[in-house]
Give the backbone structure.
Amino acid sequence: MPPRLHTCLSGNQVQLQMTIHPLYSLDVLPEIPLHELECDAPPVVHLADQDGLYRYADLINAKAAALYDASEYAQRNGTDRRLAYVTLATPEYDLGLRVLIRSIRRVSDIPIFVLVTSKWKVKSEARDVFGLAVPGIARADNHRSRSEFGATYTKLWPFALRHFDRVVFIDSDMLVLGDLDHLWTGSQFMVCRDSVEASRMDRFNSGLLAFTPKDYYLNRIAREGPHAPSDDGGDQGLLNSLFSSDVKYIESEYNTIKHYWYFNAPEVDRERIKCIHFIVKKPWELWYRELTDCFTVDIEDKWTRFLTHQELLSLVSHWRRRQFLAERPRFDITRQSKSGKRDRRKRRLHAAALAVSLSLLPLAYFLGRFVG
C-alpha cells in the first residue's frame, strides 16, 4: 500500500512526513466533489473568442484559489504561497487519473486540481483533490496529426491560475515515481525535451509543465493562440510556437516518455526517473498500437501496481469482454461454417436415404407380387 506524504514548505526546502492513507485499500472509492464555475459556462470556448477566454480564465482562477484556501494543505501551510498540481481528465482516462493521483500522493500533499469538461464521477481516496468543471477550448487546425489532439487545447486553462505562485501541470497518463521538489523552486517555465525515439533539442513535450502563472503567458495565448502555428494540431505544437524561447529545459527524468525508456537513451538514468509518460498506448488498454509496446510491458507493470485489487479485477474483466467482442466475428463464422457442414451432412443423409428407398421400391414390388 503506497504511503501518503505530508509536504511542508519552508523557504525552498521541502520536508516530507510519511503516513499511510487508510482508504487506499478500499474497493469502493469516494467521489470527489465537482465544482462548477459561478456562471453557466458553454461547453466550448474558441481560442478566437478573446473576451470569452479572459472571462472564463478569471472565473477558473477565482474558483481554484478559493478551493485552495479551504484545503487542508492551506490550513497547515497558509496561503502566502499557493501551489497546485493540475491535470485534465476524461472518462476514458479514469484509471489513469486514479493512478496519477496516488503516485503524486506518494511524494507530495500539495492540492491537486482535476479539470473536467463533462459531468462524470471522479473517484479518489486522496485528500485535497478537487474536480473543477471547465469549458473545453477549441481551435480549428487543418494539419492535425491525430484527431484526439483537438481536445488537448483545454490544457491551456492552467495558465489562467494567476492567483497561484507555482503550478505543475501533469498529464493524466503519467506515473510519478520520484519526488518533484525541484519543480516548485524558482519562477522559470520548466519543461522536458520531446524525447520519443531521439531527443528533439528544439521542442518540448507538454505532458509536464512547471511554471509561475503570469499575465504574459495568458495574454500571448489569447492574442496569438488563434493563428500561431501548431505542427501537431494540438496544445503541444501551439505551446512550442508561443514559448519555445521562454522555457528552461530540465532533465528528461522528469518526463520520461515510454518509447525513450525502450530506446535506452544514454542521457536518462533509470534509477533517477521521476515520471513516466505513457503516450499512445495506455497501460489500461488491451491492444498494442506500436512495435515498441511489447517491449515496455515492465513499465506498465509499474503502473498496474497502483491499482486496487477490485480495480485490477474490473480491468481484467473489461479486457476479457473486449477480447470476446473482437473475436466474436471469427467465432460466428466458425459456428456458421460448422452449422453449414451439419446441414449439408443432413441433406446428404436424407438424399442417400431417399435413394436407397427408391432403389428398394422395385424389389418390394416384385416381392409383393411373389408373396401374393
User: Anything to note?
Assistant: The two ends are 96 Å apart (CA to CA).
